[in-house]
Amino acid sequence: MQIRPASPADADAILALYREVAAVPGGIARSPDEVSPDYVAGFMARAAAGGLELVAVSAGRVVGEIHCAPAGLACFSSVLGDLTIAIAPAAQGCGLGRQLFQTLLATIVRDYPHIGRVELMVRASNTRAQALYRALGFVEEGRLRQRIRNPLGQLEDDVAMGWLRPEAV
């Protein structure tokens, strides 16, 4: 397994990955028909413009991707958000998501000294992801009640979580 920065040449593989993950109910917030080349190009461009995007490659295939991007406003210049992670269904449950997150956060600490905060949103019912995020140092900062429609068509809370750069010791 190799984790490396994403490149424009990965766009088609990332599109295929996101479509595969979106086909599994509860995988990501988007449905398969909402995963378009424009969607992928958009988040790749935002990540390339001051954010970070990584892919996990196994046997020549992109099996995981994570990205985050700046808001684009000077007052939020120390924050990366718009964070999404996608892991191929066959590669889930093997620690790949943790590896991608650890690499992302370590890269931010090492190469992005101006970034002090990373934000994400997670569906309230996705307790497995929340446990991972907590183990990585994210804390729950609030809930947006009945914000997101789950695969069953019911509204549920979206949980705001944040990670702060560790203080130098």
Characterize the structure shown.
The chain has helices spanning 11-22, 37-48, 96-111, 127-135, and strands spanning 2-5, 52-58, 61-70, 79-87, 117-123, 139-149, 155-164. By secondary structure, it is of the alpha+beta class. The chain has a single domain (2-164), classed as Aminopeptidase. Strands 1-2-3-4-5-7-6 form a seven-stranded mixed β-sheet. Strand 6 (139-149) and strand 7 (155-164) form a beta hairpin. The longest helix is centred in the middle third of the chain and has 16 residues, at 96-111.
Taking Cα atoms only, what radius of gyration do you get, to the nearest Å?
Answer: 15 Å
Number of domains: 1
Q: What's the assembly state of these chains?
A: single chain
Kindly state the mean pLDDT as a whole number?
Answer: 95
Which CATH-level-2 architecture? Answer: 3-Layer(aba) Sandwich
Which CATH class applies here? Alpha Beta
**Widest beta sheet: strand line-up:** 1-2-3-4-5-7-6
What form results from the Cα inertia axes? globular
Write down the secondary-structure element order.
EHHEEEHEHEE
H/I helix tally = 4
Unreliably modeled segments: none
Separation, N- and C-terminal Cα atoms: 32 Å
- The CATH topology turns out to be Aminopeptidase
Q: Helices and strands: which structural class? A: alpha+beta
